[in-house]
Amino acid sequence: MKIFLPSLLFLLPLLVLAQIKSPSEFLGYELGSQFTRHHQVIDYYEYLAETIPDRMQLTEYGKTNENRPLVLAYISTKANMKNLENIRLEHLKNTSGTGEPDKAIVWLSYNVHGNESVSTEASMKTIYELLTSKSNYLEDTVVIIDPCINPDGRDRYVNWYNQYKNSPNNVDPFSKEHHEGWWSGRSNHYMFDLNRDWAWLTQVESQQRLKQYNKWLPHVHVDFHEQGVDNPYYFAPAAEPYHEVVTDFQREFQETIGKNHAKYFDQNGWFYFTKEEFDLLYPSYGDTYPTYNGSIGMTYEQGGSGRAGLGIITSIGDTLTLNDRIAHHYTTGISTIEVASKNVAKLNEEFKKFYQPKNYLYKNYVLSGNKNKLNTLASLLKKHEVEFGFTTDASVKGYDYASGKIKNLRTKENSLVVSTNQPKGTLVKVLFEPNAKLSDSVTYDITAWSLPYAYGLDAIATESNIPSESFPHRVEEFGVLKANGYAYITNWKSINDAEFLTFLLNKKVKVRYTKKPFKLDGKAYERGSLIITSSDNKHLSDFIEILNNGSIKFSKNLSTVQTGFVDSGKDFGSDYVAMIPKSKIAVLSGEPTSTLRFGEIWHFFEQQLKYPITILDETYFNQIDLNEYEVLILPDGRGYGRFMTEAISNKIKDWVSSGGKLIAMGGAIDALSKLKGFGIKEKEQEKDSMPNLDAFDVSQREYIKSAITGAIFKATVDPTHPLAYGYDESYFTLKLGNRAFNYLDNGNVVYLTKGANVPVSGFAGSKAQKKIDETLIYGTEKMGRGHVIYMVDNPLFRGFWENGKLFFANALFMVN
What we know:
The protein is of the alpha/beta class. It folds into 4 domains: 5-354, Aminopeptidase, CATH 3.40.630; 364-462, no CATH class; 487-579, no CATH class; 585-685 and 699-813, Rossmann fold (3-Layer(aba) Sandwich), CATH 3.40.50.880. Helix 6 (118-131) crosses helix 12 (322-341) and helix 9 crosses helix 12. The longest helix is centred in the N-terminal third of the chain and has 21 residues, at 248-268. The protein starts with a helix and ends with a helix. The relative contact order is 0.08.
């Protein structure tokens, strides 16, 4: 028997190979010869799970907006799979320092950007080889594969490509198949970039995925991407800046993995680069978010993306094929697992260290303010499994976010407390710290995101511990309204109030609002407060039932009053108490606009306000009768120069003058500023009088002086203006660039005053600071019987800048 043992060992992998079909055998075409639709990918993964259930399990963890399944595949040896739940639990014990795990957990995420389409193809080759020729790597590892994070976007791209590609495919880069349109497959259904949503969780894909991610908290997480067709492959180690919380081991292990990849790429003569462009700072990426939760988080970038198709000629005359791209992603994926399998003990040791208590400067973040804003933040923290509590009576000394100074304050009722002394303490520090430390000002994304600013909450970062309870001290109860009221009143302070308003408008409830503060029955009501009278709503037999349902659904306390005669201020019959119209609203889509910025508006209406919106595409905009709409939104974008012809600009101006309301954002304002009739004017950046004589290497970085890489500034607000109802006299705005406009002659609502051009958080170059000094953020302009509302900064950015959303709701409903 000993004579035949080596032969039997050699035959074992072949026997396994014979049990399951390769992707090519199962699909009926060679992998890499065409793109595989999502349902076919799912079919293959289901086939594997059914054929070898003792070595692979498949779980559906959710659905997309377009009802496509989201799945995870778990792969390991028979013994490990039999013990999978115990492996998971023992690993998670290490977050409290009590576990003794002996396995490494590797999570591979594919196709977060739908038109970076090689990833899902590579996932099928990777899982097949892991279950066959590379199965030895699974002895001490559990591999989790998400074959497609963004099925809606990927199928959008695959379907488009199959419609437009030549037969056979054409490698000429000028062929139609290499020029995807505006409605690209990169983003999800709502045109959101899922790779920037890990921390903010605005999208259903992200929300459902994170539930599963928190069940495992893998040692290693890889996010597979593609970049331009002329770029060589990128893999770890990442570029500076690294966030200061990234551990020495996380840095070192990225280097270890990168060198292992390089070994294989060198053998094949493949080109690659490391330590450039892709940094580890912004917390909402597929590499940084895992890193801040103890993983070795990495981005891998293959040249290709939506332009590459099945093959394309690059700028140096090479032909890049889908097969090439699959081979590269397959190689780095397998190499990652190989390195993890050889470093199991070290990965477990360092993971345990990561979760040991940290001595961060700030021990607690104490937040006070509007209860709805606090509740919205608390909801986000729960999704991240971040622990928090509440305190009612405590003396707090620390960094005050509003003033930027050290202050002594007493906490308010139900102040929310988030401590860094908890398993997710590192994530807390990253999300809440007032200002992230930058080792390099050249970054891939924004440099400021601090949640107290984003949510519009008063906050203190303390160096001492604050006692708190893990539950609210007061559970609010809502009384049942009765039908004997003259009117029902509620405040206007948060986007939750706007959601309540649109709920009522959709139910055909007529709602008024006050333009002046007033007092009634001993209570004070601010501008914007909603007044719902019984006489206005006699047409509704279920009027009170609607109000009761709405007050419970949106946690709204409504005051019942028996008169419209106020104690002070303006009575309910005054012109200062106006009806809120149920406006018909349209938004422009297509080439002039950014898909991302359009998507933010679309998502805001459908998923948050739940208010109807009509999408008007630029291809037939000329044919539209704008008089059918009361509000038109022009999202940010770079294509307005071509779109805004004289005919279209005159059409829009005539519509506004006759009573329409135009909301112009970002790049749309650039175009309007160049047209006659609009009062907005761009502020020019002063040019250097001296020629640039810096060395080429120096001048390459000189541009950063004119850049703002997502920084937060403290702006002044006119809270008496309808566009600012619900706000105080200051607002922290997120600026994404150095776009700057002079003050308007009238209607300056939010603006930077002289000297307010230095960011409170994030990076802004010296020249950019000078340019934005004394400039407009949000303002309004009367034009005939209508209004133009200018939004220079984006109040809906990535759906996470919560405190900006009420400005947008005011633009829709309060400016009349």
